[in-house]
Amino acid sequence: MDSYRHKGLRKALVSSLRPKGIYNEAVLDAMMKVPRHLFLDKAFEEWAYKDQAFPIREGQTISQPFTVAFQTQLLEPEKSEKVLEIGTGSGYQACILYHLFKKVYTIERLKTLFDSTQKLLKDIGYERIRSLYGDGYKGAPRFAPFDKILVTAGASSIPKTLLEQLKIGGYLVVPVGQGDDKEMLRIKKTGEESYEKESFGIFRFVPFKKGTVD
């Protein structure tokens, strides 16, 4: 399932992320632990450890490893914390978070993708990730508040509901913009109604959509 060859390719990928600005050793270690090829269709397995995005089911994508590492690094993960991911997709990002946080919750709006990814996570030993089927714009109020929230799709505006579900001192990392190019934002909740916003460059994501699809 995870051969010496896969591990060698993964090590080379992780090494390539350092000069691109990924300095958090815990994040790099998590990237080394998660076999990315398990989240791709067989047709793309040979390219699993290239630093690029690939299509997955339901017209979605598995993000470029650099993007996964960059967003994760922006969260400044702490092992004692609880994190919410919006947009489970293939499940790859959730597995990275699993190695960095005490509790991981992840939401997917596409039912067929939710079902297949939930099964995969259990099959490869990540059954402790709490997978939720629902509208990511609504977050997960039942399990709030969260120390950190990560959005893995491009939003047209900052979702206020997600800000409300953050703990004071927590971060929301979300790509925001009107076109294909999204501005990577990190928003720190400094009080019940106060926030600080930082920008970290332009990225491309599938759109962040409301509602669910059965």
Relevant terms:
214 residues, alpha/beta, Rossmann fold, two-stranded antiparallel sheet, 9 strands, globular
What is the H/E string? HHEEHEHEHEEHEEE
Number of strands: 9
Any low-confidence stretches, pLDDT <50, length ≥5? none
* Residue share in helix: 25-40%
The main sheet comes to: 7 strands, mixed
User: How much of the sequence is in beta strands?
Assistant: 25-35%
Instruction: Provide the CATH top-level class of one domain.
Output: Alpha Beta
Structural class estimated from helices and strands: alpha/beta
Strand order of the largest sheet: 5-4-3-6-7-8-9
Architecture per CATH nomenclature, i.e. the level-2 architecture of one domain: 3-Layer(aba) Sandwich
- Total of DSSP H or I helical runs spanning 4+ residues: 6
CATH topology of one domain: Rossmann fold
Shape label: globular
CATH-defined superfamily of one domain: Vaccinia Virus protein VP39
From the alpha-carbon coordinates, what is the Rg to the nearest angstrom?
A: 16 Å
